[in-house]
Please model this.
Amino acid sequence: MADVINTQGHVRLGSNAGQGLTRRDGVLKVTGAATYAADNRPEGLLHAVTATATIARGRVTHLDVAAAEAHPGVVKLYTPDNVPPLAVSPDEKIHPFVWRMEALQSDRVRYAGQPIALVLAETLEAATEAARLLAPRYEAETPHVTLDDAEPFETTTTAFGRPADHSSGDIGKARATAARHVVAEVETVAQYHNAMEPHAIVARWTGDRLEIDTPNQAIGLARQTFAAFLGIEPAQILIRSPFLGGGFGSKAILYGGQLLAVLAARDTGRPVKLVLRRDQMYGPVGHRAPTRQRLRLDLDEDGRIAALQHDTLTMTSSFDHFLEGASNASHSLYATAALQTTHRGLRADIGTPGPMRAPGEAPGSAALEVAMDLAAQAAGLDPLAFRLRNHAETDPSNGMAFSSKALRECYAQAADLFGWADRPAEPRRMRQGQLLKGWGMGSAQFPCPMFTAAAHATLRADGSAVVETSAADMGQGAWTALAQIAADGLGLDIDRVEFRSGHSDLPDAGVAGGSGHTATAGTALFNAGADVVRRLVDLATGDPASPLFGAGNSGVTARGGRLHRNDDGRSEAYEDILARAGLDMLRGEGTGAREGQPTRAMFSHGAVFAEVLVDPDLGQIRVSRLVGAFAAGRIINPRLARSQLLGGMVWGIGFALQEEALHDARTGRFTNNDLAGYHIPVNADAPMIEALTVHEDDPFVNALGIKGVGEIGVTGTVGAIGNAVWHATGLRSQRFPIHPESLI
Ligand code: MOS
Model:
């Protein structure tokens, strides 16, 4: 369709994209009218509560089932002795986004907090009390829950089939010619997603049809997974997931509890609701595993990186496979003649880790940016000058050109706004009152994956439209940004476009993950709208009664609900075209995916500058300023993009200074599985934050030029804060979060 393709071969969006509209679901959310999964209370509802293991390894030898069943209000109780079986093996990998389905298969305990029984009762209180009455007894074994004592295992992949090791260039040769090298050793700790909304499900069977309310980041895949494990067809299942109170990766993958609730609903013939308590989300629903990383950077005389080695040790559960791909963060950011990265895995008595906001990149970037600061010091260069000297013109891991890379502009704009030029090179040179002040920086990078999505667009007789795709809005504003893209595809003002999403009977929008949802689902929606416009153009230009008759050669532009001739500007309204053709609607379809093998390296980039204040006596650290500039292709909604970037940077504060899940090493149990003990940043921890976006026109990443903003904010930020702490104090913590005791 020549009228929406510009000369550079990518799509020209209309006037809806680029506007900083507020969230379309904002009023529903702030007035409490938005219903989340746990708000559903169908007639005849049973409440389910899981009993969870208080040991981390061993067997359940006894449950007082009789006592629990005798409790008033209890309807049914499931243990491994009577749980309905899954239709296929729990090990079955239906698709890459499925873990081993833990659904009370045996008395084995593999991690603390593992569900060991499910109680159904008429009230939540009765189910809770009955679960307590089970009073489990165990045969406990010594658990291994730390990087020091877990068991090594052989693996060639990290996760989703990605290779564990990478090598390019001749590292031996590069090192032989290098002038000096630095080594950085950095540890990161276990983190839990802690979405505000807990994992929840309400399951109801009507005959052989299953209705599920559950927050989910990948509804189509979830439906496939449920169908396979239940032995039914996906078409028999309707999943509703209209609102998610955060996901961060933990709601992308189903867990055993969700399946248990569905099995229980089928078995009892009544609707079942299961809502996890905060402490029950520590274990069964994924987390970010700890890492121990070592980087070696060899430098030549001029401060150029000759060789970069990044090795990661991390751990997974005893029964499934997910390794935090931290070393991958070093693949594509800085130029180097030789690159070598590895991952080694351990098996521990923990729940299976999984993707958590910027999986791999977040801890990997933290360690890389610390190593870069050490290397800058060794080279006698300012940290920013050092990064500019090692700016990669092509991706060092594969030699590909970047699809676009406005990283230099990010450095320039953020450094300018921050005032980086005034930074003294030596540490401990700046004070604010009694406090030591330090400045540090880091580069940000995140890949631009695309999944596959489909969408429908229907133009109505009155010239308004409805668009449909089952996208997931975790709070990031997807429904708003996607509606903007859809409206541009249709050539309509956004107020004329109804956006339907969030349930599985709609076309599948793919995974809201990998920062690829807007690009993928947006492409499908745009194409669906463009399909409608194409049909309209055919109707109008072929009709002698239309002012557009014969405009085919000069072209037609769709805008504001009208088709406009490019030659003489005459136009016709959509509703008039439909009316004359005798149509009460016109329907279009679209898909979104990346075609073929990529020929360019595709990443969002950014630069983050941090200021910290450190109490020299108490070691207390406060981030007082953060400035980030990010180049992420075309920004569909600047308000929402900024919000995502701010959120990512705040997450970086938590990573750098606060978040840490603690186990008692003897019992393997958590000691802080609640939001009182597991610290995340609150408003008082979040300082003045500036998040700029730098314009990028990317003709390669996809037709709309969209990259992604969901995860990049955390990358760069953690290292920048660590480097600022060094600049304030002259002390380097080898561990995130940085605690006061490592500074005094
Ligand atoms: Mo994410 S960790 O791609 O939801």
